[in-house]
Amino acid sequence: RLISCKLGISRKDDRLPNHNMKVLSSGRLKNVKLDLEDNLKKYYNIRGWNWETGRPSEEKLKDLGIIS
């Protein structure tokens, strides 16, 4: 993720194609609309990434031994 950030990729780039966000008309998830924003916030939190920037937090970088 840090390399992606250095290449200019940010949180705004974390999205799914529109066809993946359509509400299904059949199956177990029929009529279920996923909240990508909420799920991304949870994922970022689990990964130790900053929600505003998409960058790994300083604490996460220390945990990984990237910085001291």
Task: Give an overview in words.
Helices cover 34% and strands 0% of the residues. The protein is mainly alpha-helical. The model has no long low-confidence stretch (mean pLDDT 92).
In short:
By secondary structure, the chain is mostly helical. It is built from 3 helices and no strands.
- Structural class computed from helices and strand pairing: mainly alpha
Give the number of DSSP strands.
0
Cα-to-Cα separation, first versus last residue = 18 Å
Largest sheet: none
Order of helices and strands: HHH
Could you estimate the helical fraction of the residues in percent?
A: 25-40%
Please give the radius of gyration in angstroms: 15 Å
Counting H and I runs of at least 4 residues, what is the number of helices? Answer: 3
Overall pLDDT metric: 92
What percent strand? under 5%
The figure for the number of domains is 1
Q: Low-confidence parts, pLDDT < 50 over ≥5 residues?
A: none
Please tell me what the overall shape is: elongated
How would you describe this structure in keywords?
68 residues, mainly alpha, 3 helices
Topology:
Layout: H1 2-6, H2 36-47, H3 58-63
